[in-house]
């Protein structure tokens, strides 16, 4: 059950869209909503003895007051009425600050906005949302546009039927049940990793036995690439949400092999929910 939601915000349009969805979910689950604003302050002085941080007072005070003003504007929105909202400003590296806060406060789900990037900008710059998806141990819900009425009726979970997808799928089922949504399990069959229907069916039978749950909606979908196949399958179903397990790959392996979950975060038009494998 979702009891604590975290929305990292830079007060951008994308972050506001995530906040609006978070408010709807907070009301639905009677959950506490945490807002965090991270400032990568250039003049931070690390105290080697205490481990605490000091800041140049005038600049720090200015950024703090600006953040508090923006927090008040968010909390005054109609969608936030009746919700317990906790706000926090941290002078820290953005994505590490989010991960640390989520752990310390036992956050159930992180909700973030993203407009996506492509090409060299995506490869060399990346986004904080990507980094959170890559490293977060909590589920991360990525919102791509405004949802005045956010309701998940159909959820697509993409899987390669490997054992490391068992735990993420169980979590996805829990979310689907809470939302009273239909979960569609899909295996994307591509030319570069083609398997026969007989082989995939055998993999599915072995995999589903480990879920301890009857899976009625399983399909094999053929496409040129896995990412494209997931998005096309979700489009054909008019699915409300794409869910996937994610590996926290780092270093050269990330750049050479890519990360499917991060690609979906960047390119999918639908919301994406990731679960750490």
Automatic annotation (TrEMBL):
Residues 1-144, 153-275 form the UspA domain. Transmembrane segments: none annotated. CDD domains: USP-like. Gene3D superfamilies: HUPs (3.40.50.620). Coiled coil: none annotated. It holds the Pfam family Usp. Belongs to the universal stress protein A family. This is Nucleotide-binding universal stress protein, UspA family. It comes from Leeuwenhoekiella marinoflava DSM 3653. The lineage of its organism: Bacteria, Pseudomonadati, Bacteroidota, Flavobacteriia, Flavobacteriales.
């Amino acid at each position: 059950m979702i009891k604590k939601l975290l929305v990292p915000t830079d007060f951008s349009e994308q972050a506001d869209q995530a906040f609006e969805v978070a408010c709807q979910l907070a009301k639905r689950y009677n959950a506490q909503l945490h807002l965090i604003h991270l400032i990568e302050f250039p003049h931070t002085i690390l105290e080697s003895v205490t481990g605490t941080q000091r800041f140049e007072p005038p600049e720090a005070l200015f950024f703090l007051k600006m953040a508090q003003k923006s927090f008040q504007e968010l909390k005054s929105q109609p969608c936030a009425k009746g919700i317990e909202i906790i706000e926090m400003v941290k002078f820290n590296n953005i994505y590490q600050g989010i991960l640390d806060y989520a752990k310390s406060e036992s956050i159930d789900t992180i909700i973030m906005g993203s407009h996506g990037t492509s090409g060299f900008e995506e490869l060399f710059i990346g986004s904080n949302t990507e980094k959170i998806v890559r490293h977060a141990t909590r589920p991360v819900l990525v919102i791509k546009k405004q949802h005045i009425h956010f309701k998940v009726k159909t959820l697509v979970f993409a899987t390669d039927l490997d054992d490391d997808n068992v735990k993420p799928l169980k979590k996805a089922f829990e979310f689907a049940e809470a939302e009273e949504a239909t979960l569609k399990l899909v295996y994307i069959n591509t030319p570069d990793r083609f398997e026969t229907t007989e082989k995939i069916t055998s993999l599915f039978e072995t995999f589903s036995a480990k879920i301890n749950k009857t899976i009625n909606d399983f399909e094999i979908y053929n496409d040129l690439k896995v990412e494209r196949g997931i998005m096309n399958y979700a489009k054909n179903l008019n699915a409300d949400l794409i869910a996937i397990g994610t590996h926290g790959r780092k270093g050269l392996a990330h750049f050479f092999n890519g990360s499917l979950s991060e690609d979906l975060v960047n390119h999918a038009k639908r919301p994406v929910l990731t679960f750490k494998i």
